Amino acid sequence: MSEMSDEKLERMLRERRVAPPSANLAERIILKAQAIPQSEALSLGQSIRRLFTEFHLPKPAYVVTGTLILGLVLGFSDPFAQAPVDRGGSTSAQAFLYAEEDAL
């Protein structure tokens, strides 16, 4: 900023109207501060315990069911009817399913 705008800003800040604080401002601040619970020093064990209570895990039955459904969806999304195409010696992860061997 230029010096002229700095001086203008300083003059405007000095001339601005400032509302006086209310008479009971200090009392209101004290009452609000008393209503706020104070934090206590926690040991490492207590802080870890609080962390795990905040992040609870879902029930194991839901996790197993969700995993099975996800596995079925992913399994059926890739069709097994098509044999893998051999591209210059590279093999896919499912190449063992389509081995062309004679039955024993």
Please tag this protein with its features.
4 helices
Number of helices: 4
Series of H and E elements: HHHH
Low-confidence residue ranges: none
Number of beta strands = 0
β-strand percent reads under 5%
Multimeric status of the protein: single chain
In short:
By secondary structure, this protein is mainly alpha-helical. It has 4 helices and no strands.
Task: Please characterize this protein's 3D structure.
The longest helix is centred in the middle third of the chain and has 18 residues, at 60-77. The chain has helices at 3-15, 25-35, 44-54, 60-77. It is mostly helical and 104 residues long. It is elongated and about 95 Å long. The mean pLDDT is 78. The chain is 51% helix and 0% strand.
